[in-house]
Amino acid sequence: MVDNLLHKHEVNVLKALISANGRLSYEELLKKSGLSKDSLNWAINSLKEKGAVKVKESKQEIVQISEEGMAYAKQGLPEERLMQRLESSGSLALGELKTKEDQLGLQWLKAKGLAKLENGRLVLAKREPIQAGEALRQLAKNAGAFSELKQSMPDAIKELVSRHLVSVSERREIEIVELTEQGKAMASQGSAEIVQLTSSMLKEGSWRGKTFAPYNLSAKVEPASPAREHLLRRIINRIRLAYLGMGFEEVEGPIVEPAFWVFDYLFVPQDHPARDVQDTFFVESPSHAELEEKELANHIGRVHERSWHLKWQEEIASQVVLRPHTTSVSGRFIYRIMHDLNKNPNAYSLPIKLFTIGRVFRNENIDYKHLADFYQTDGIIIGKDLTLSELFDTLIKLYKALGIEVKFKPSYFPFVEPGVEVDAKLGDEWLEMGGAGVIRREVTGSRHKNIRVLAWGLGIERIALAENKSIGSIAHLYNPSLGWLRKYSLG
Amino acid sequence: MPTSSHSRKYLYSLLGYQPSDDELSKLLDSLGMTLDNASRESIEVEYQANRPDLISTVGLARSIRYFTGKRSSFEYKVEEPLQGFEVSVGRRVAKIRPFFAAMVVKGLELSSDSLLDLINFTEKLTITYGRNRKRVAIGLHDLSKVEPPLTYDAFPDEEYDALRSGRMRYSEVLKNTSKGKAYAQLCNVGDYYCALKDKRGTLSLIPVLNSERTMVTEKTADMLVDITGTNSFVVEKTADIVAANMIDMGAKVYKVSIKKNGRQYTTPSMSTLELSVPLSRFSYELGVRLAFNNVISLANKMGIQAALVGRNIRFTVPAYRADIINDQDIVEDIAVAYGYDYIQPIPVVSIRQGALSERQKTADELRHMLNGLGFFETMSSYLTNEETNYAKMRLKPDSKQIRLANAKAITITMMRTWLLPSLLLSLSKSQHDKLPHRLFELDMCFYLDSGKVKEAYDLAGIISDSSIDFNELSSVVSAIASFLGKKLETKPFDHASFIPGRCASIWLDGKHAGFYGELHPEVLENFGVQAPAMAFELELF
Fold first, then answer.
1. Which of A183, B268, B334, B385 could tie A179 with a disulfide, CB 3.0–4.6 Å?
2. How far is the alpha carbon of B83 from chain A, nearest alpha carbon, in Å?
3. What is the rounded distance in angstroms from the CA atom of residue B469 to the CA atom of residue B451?
4. Per-residue pLDDT reduced to its tens digit, B504-531
5. B3-67 belongs to which CATH class?
């Protein structure tokens, strides 16, 4: 009889089914049994395994349109927009198709045979509506149209999915539960054993002398998903602890900065490609910020003109940007501390060790693999007679705390000399992690020749990859879905 | 890092031996370069952006030969100007492209490899170091087709035999050729066009397109090179680099005499930079004990001549090294020659204790608490758009937003002013995942506060389930207030993102800090969220 022992929930389900002539929809069963969804699902599955019920399931396809997809649904696919332009102007020179959007449109028009090149100009080859665009707009209006569209425009749907504009997943749901003959027999038998111990049984002592129905100890359940630190936060915190253990102090600095602190103070010439609108985010409002340290700005301007043979313009330095690196934070502290030390060499007990971790920004085309903001860490040591030897030792120890092997090679950054590239071992390959070096005199403005500044700037996501091989791709770190967060809470 | 490509055959012939790729890769690493994409015929090398002298195969081979001790001569001699060969620079280029240098090269024995290297080098240099030909551009001409005297100036529109394009007017070249369109604004000043002309007409529309007449081929033995640009130093250094390459290719380089504003000067200057550095500096900047003869031989490995003068070492930096500004750059070259691999790590001696920022410590503890309450942390982009930040939340854009001027991605227009839209985006991507959904974010938001940028840390949380209990949310908010040690008051609040009558403002110690409530079904619809949801957001610091 042991096999036939029923849990309280199972009994509930069987009773509900019997009272309804053996057949109920899931929703009715939910109401009649008075169970929660989780308990009901468990009971149905358990009864199914015992052969007491039969279950009819429905399959449902869930359609989601990505953010990019939604944008295209509104404005049209890149190729549709390009096609419109072609229709109105007849042809377009390749040179005019500069934006990423144009390039995408061009690729798709060519791939679909709708346009071709003639004498270096793009012309229409065929005039026909672009099915993928039609399908996308219909889906955006009504996701329920999916199954119909899959029949009527299968290629368009396939294309939308492969372009990551639309994603499809399947959901199975229990629709109808039906009692079997065996189930009926089981329901009539019942059980005299204690299925669930209650507090009243304990109070009254009525459990004494009775036996307990055994649990199904091999029942399959989903693992619980404890909420805990985000995977990326975990790595950031490991790095913070590694710094802390090495005697570093955590500091913070602005994200929205005048170009002065991001570039000029760091000896990056005003015509350097990194300052291009192609790479750096410029802020529209407020577009300029007054440089508070007038004397410093003038001094830096003179240093630039002398070293880069280029007229230094305060207007360019005061443009507001989103910091492309956290070295701007180091720069602000280097300035403040060196300013004090120049006045009084005993202003601090040296060495001073500081670090910062924060977001940085690159003007990129974003998709699920590339983000425009990510994390970086910068560190500095200000002290007497510091050399590459101390720099290498610090970086080796920092990475060692994270279980990563590093090596160094010569490199160039305008604000350091000597400059160092830091490479980390990832499997059999060496991956570039960032840069380091001894900060130039032009930046530190040190009046005491033996006080020097060691500095580095390192990517966090790459540390994450080297530290935890199961991540695979940086894109995963930013996956916002709860399903992913739950999965990685167990890792 | 920029890359340039090199023919294996040509590189090996210049090196005089055939290193294995392993050996080459190690050599390049030591010199601060990287071997990339090796194919059967050629290799790609990443070089540092401040070393335009390493772009050409000739320059690369030069640095390897010095480094491996295969070369010990430091001489780069240029000959005095040839009689009757002069260039005058007109006044009309002063505002658009004022700087000019030129040289005559004789006795080149070009092969297809060396010609290709020369052309690749000029293209690459003018794109990278030349900032897409703006700072500097280079023109190569077959000297035998050139008839002095020459003039560089901006001229009125006229016809010439544009390279591989037939006879065209300047204006047509700018309008109708791909090079013309790309560089038109560097060439065109009012009705005038920068050009180099000789007795017979246009040699080059600068910095756009040469003439067919003076085209360089493998048979060209003698060349005229013109270098123009907007930065005098960069033009000078480019001329020096070209001259050094030509000399290393076995040619003789003659200076050219240039007349500008009544002044006369000759190019390329090929002037070396003399720097004196105390011997002791190398030991205490590199953490390695070095005797003077060590420093001298290390400098030689980098192609720099050096000699002991008193207690100083005097370095003669070759003209083609555009990157060396002062003594600090010499210190780096000595470190590179010594080898980063041989520099011993030495610990920093310090008794200072480390410390985390107080603000971040509070944030850490709040995050742990929210985890304890079953909320998962999300880490979303700080960048967003008006649609997500306002419209989908049933709000009108306000003037407090920090707008971006130049984002490439169409989905980015501004910095987020609050966190809830980020949480709703996460929810929208979690619709297949089992309920309940509990998410939080503790991170930065950005807005204008009386004209100044405010970078604030907000804490926001959201609970979505098939049915929700508002008291559960209230108890979370109250737990946060008591963690922060602040007195919590709530008042009915109107917020378009929430259902009227189901939203309250949060006051901490008498200060308005945030709000919480049940999200408006329209907001849920806008984000494709299929279960009811309630949320809170408060500004922490």
1. A183
2. 33
3. 40
4. 999 999 999 999 999 999 999 999 999 9
5. alpha beta
